[in-house]
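G.,

No rush on this.
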Amino acid sequence: MLTWAEARAACHAAGAAVPPVTETVPLGLADGRTLAEPLVTLTDLPAFPTSSVDGWAGRGAQPWRVVGRVLAGDDPGPLDEDGTCVEIATGASVPGGVTAIVRIEESSTGPDGVRGEARAMRDWRDVGEEAARGEELLSAGTPVTPGVIGLAASCGYHALAVRRPLRAELLVFGDELLTEGLPGAGRVRDALGPQLPAWLARYGCEVAPVEPPVKDTLEAHIAAIEAALTRADLVCTTGGTMHGPVDHLHPALAALGAEYVVNTAKVRPGFPMLLARLPGGKFLGGLPGNPQSAVVALVSLVAPLLAGLTGRRADLPRVTLGSDIPGRGDYTHLALVRLDADGLAHALPHAGSSMLRGLARAVGFAVIPPGAHGTAGTVVELAPLPLYPGELA
């Protein structure tokens, strides 16, 4: 049995080994994708000397005689004569020959011209001050955010080469599940069919609508998985990861010729979970049937797999514990936490493997390593929930 850290690493490596599929999309459609190529600026930034203020751009000693005006978008000629200036707007191109810019609010004008004291820090940006043409600004594998889109536009791009979105499908196992109405008489509401597609979508996947629960027979499991694999890069299933009388996932995977990337990991909650590679290079994530355990499996195995498939890193952020969190012996303990106003992590109640009340308030899971006890003030890794679209870390 792999440790939790080993299982995450194996899933990321499995995804990273798959050759990427890329496409070029307009900037307006790139949000949430992943850069397939480095972002290299196509021009100097800025491309011309640019005024940072509204004021007077002059040459030589004052007073300056006003000889013109330069607005944003103009392409001015140089100032050829000492003692002259132009009125200049923020963002406008600074004429050649200018030796100083005086802010409009720090200047005065009179019969003899413009006077004012220029600041020690020049009020214009030089060519290439932010970046030189051909400079790599962002590496391949960088998530595309609105900020990345704005940077790309400033560099001269109208489209970006990005990884193709991954297609995911969810199969729900369990004859005991209800898809509507109140639980009772031995049957429970399916709480994973409604929520897991939303988590997968926040990881950046295109998710197919969920079908009714698959019947608890081996033949139905094999048929459902085969059909889903024709449409999806990743199939996630809920339930059936044990070896009970109606747990058909392992026999179905054997019949389909799958190989395990991870066949359970030493983590609580979330035991048992699996990730399998199917012939043809597609993947199946086997999530437990208990709701919180299924989400633990999602952040433990599926999130690093998706990071690998999209060329992203799978590093985890760190948080400081605001209260004690017990360990789970030889197992990694993933403890649901919220953050207080100071950014400290506190364990949430109602965090049993079958419960969802704590999950509804959580930012993620504090990672308490095997053999350890989380004490207040300790810095630990956080396995975050994808609270924002496209969030993989």
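When you get to it, here's the other one too:
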Amino acid sequence: MKKSETESELETQKQELIAALKACGAVRYGDFTLASGKKSKYYIDIKRASTDPKTLKLIAQQAASRIKQMDVDIVAGVELGGVPLATAVSLETELPLLIVRKAVKDYGTKSRFVGDIKPKNRLVILEDVTTSGGSVRDAIDVIRETGASVKYVISVVDREEGAKENLNEAGTELIPLVSASDLLK
């Protein structure tokens, strides 16, 4: 990704997003079990942020500013958490939307995808929260089976528990809008 935004602009955006995530109640403390099965003393509920129009718009604007520096032609989101994010970013960037299902439905088109995907497409995937990167890596593999490529994943929050390294191994760059260490300060 090209570096055109200054460090201070990115820091300002990060602080705006942190304030919005806290204000809409997306950051919770307690005892939680994550999708990965790990236990955590905090939970980042981006679905709460996705249902708050101001926070969702802020996420879409910040993701779109990064996407403008990428060579991509489709915005993708994995059901469920990535779909409202990718939809908002698609509206902001005017790039087509692709929804990636976690499993093939046994009715209708029986496809893992909602939207058009072609072998030469270049996609960016929007994720709500990344921990190990396992679920988004599954989506990357399914997309690549079509001949399309995924070079970037934009995550609203990276929990900093291995997703960056896991995605790097898959040839994909993780671009978090906020890291957990910044959010929990």
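Residues 7-183 form a domain with the Rossmann fold fold (CATH 3.40.50.2020). The chain has one domain: 7-183.

Enjoy the weekend,
O.
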